[in-house]
Specification:
Four copies of one chain form a homotetramer. With 194 residues, chain A is mostly helical. Chain A is 76% helix and 0% strand. In chain A, helix 2 packs antiparallel against helix 4 and helix 4 runs antiparallel to helix 5. Chain A is globular, with a radius of gyration of 18 Å. Chain A starts with a helix and ends with a helix. At the A-B interface, helix 1 and helix 2 of A face helix 1, helix 3, helix 4 and helix 5 of B.
Chain lengths: 194, 194, 194, 194
């Protein structure tokens, strides 16, 4: 019951974030193809962030599936994650409008890094609450995706100041890494049921 | 359980898209009837897109009703559909503000076409997951609406460059075709229950 | 099940409408009390529309409670109601910004009138689907509120062109009439249970 | 059932409020670190309000958990609370844009004070409906947080006109006081189950 409301609230916030992000794609004045040209980087950064938010929604969904009792600290760790996700539209809009310039690209990476850290904090709280036989602990054992993402974000933040396109490339790479749905949690759940 | 969250998330995103679209109807400066005149095409395009989003919500609702187990690829096919739907407010606003000019009208059709393709991909994934006795497969057998819409969108995109009003007329026609609620899925479900 | 999704979608749309309406209350430039003064009519019209949307949510909630099976026409009658409700933020913002001038006040009434008509259409469809022993029919028997509101809206629309403040007063009166929660449906439900 | 819809609607409204608040963090023109500097106070006020809304969501969640039957007056007391919460984005944006100047800081406190009063009204209505053995009454017995907040808000409103930073400090203090999750209701529920 309690969990349902946390899921519903998180779904609501992520659904709103993913949708208001499109408001940064401002309707241009003028009716030609050319008026769309300056919007291309804004559109591309929208696609990238849409995929990231989709990944977060997807993984959040799987992770909460393993939770039995939502505790107070989990509620706040969840809000902390939603906080960083809520900054993605701002970071996306700034990066897109400035055609992936250095500082906006670094800020984008910083927001992704903080969201990633917030996700790990929530994950560790859930594992701690589940005791030694934690389903989630088994599921994320050997979690190379989770281990590899923060250093890649950090590298992308630094690279943004020299080769900003390489930085953008890294964001795309991390998204692709995660795009493969996380079957580990599903598998751990299945073997827990058996 | 899992399906519920996918439905709730999709409902949330579609509800937000349908509602933020009204933000393109900007409050005019001035208090006379005349200040409303330039808003008439924006209003008409709002009505058209509201109907389209209503149709998508309606059919999405029926289609997911037949799903028993949501798979990873379905989640992403669903997000892909939501992505194209999320561009409808932008395309609507641009078309309305430019009084149904050629390029904006063609872009509007392109977004509808991509959303239609995304819908078919999701439908095919669900059918494939249901095996040879798929309820959904029976339901969409002889799906002339689904077969006729993409060529009509494509025709409307091309026509937009010569007779943009005819193009708009085609969008209205496709909406009217779909407005009739899709009883086929309901019937297939009923005969599956019997 | 089906009903749940209609309720969830309607709740979502009404929640978004009620909340984005506050975006018309634009953050002023300047930090004095005086910079708030021009916002007072916008704020008052926000309060009025918030109450109206609260009334609609409340009554919609009660009415759907009596529904057993949602039909296709009901879905569209519901979307039709949501369409008119979605125009309330626009009408509210325009009326507030123009300090309750004649044309914006008349438009506000027109949107309320159309929403009221859409509500009645949905109500009649539900009653028709419930057959001769319709719970909802008993509940709205002697529905003086529903009967009195449309002529009051119509009067307010006309009055707006001569005495716009009287028109505004009528909107307040109709809101107050409805503010009293609709116990009739609750009572009818209770006697149906007994 | 009825309670579910009230929870869902409240979750929806709070989720939207918390998310559209980020729209006040407008994407700056320019791509340097310096262009972010004027946004720092807007960002800080966003963090503060995010925490406040998180607290309200959290406590609202716990409080409604004790409700068995939602009455008409509760619905309206809940909408009244949501009304004041819906003004937080406006008050936050105005305070942030004016770097915590006196009048905007006082208005921010006034909105928090009214939301706090609305919360207490809802709480008292629920307690009254639960009769002499009210679980919620036991839970909030010795509620020093609820007793201490309104005078602190009132003090902050007055202080805003002389030492606006002290006023801001008080808002942070009240948030910290509440940040500790309200275990009293959880405890009362647990002893009621036993």
């Amino acid at each position: 019951m309690k969990k349902n409301r946390v899921e519903a609230f998180s779904d609501g916030v992520i659904a709103i974030i993913i949708t208001i992000m499109v408001l940064e794609l401002k309707v241009p004045h003028g009716e030609d193809f050319e008026t769309l040209t300056p919007l291309i980087p804004v559109f591309l950064s929208y696609v990238l962030s849409f995929v990231y938010l989709g990944i977060y929604w997807n993984n959040h969904h799987h992770m909460l599936h393993t939770v039995q009792k939502v505790t107070g600290p989990m509620l706040w760790a969840n809000l902390h994650l939603l906080f960083w996700l809520s900054l993605i539209p701002f970071a996306t809009g700034w990066m897109g409008e400035n055609h992936f310039a250095s500082v906006p690209s670094a800020l984008y990476g910083a927001v992704l890094l903080m969201a990633g850290i917030a996700y790990v904090i929530l994950q560790e709280l859930i594992i701690a609450s589940q005791g030694p036989d934690s389903i989630l602990k088994k599921a994320v054992r050997g979690d190379w995706k989770g281990k590899v993402s923060p250093p890649l974000y950090a590298a992308a933040i630094l690279l943004a100041f020299w080769w900003n396109w390489l930085s953008l490339g890294l964001y795309v790479v991390v998204a692709l890494i995660w795009l493969i749905p996380d079957r580990r949690i599903e598998n751990a759940l299945r073997s827990a049921d058996a």
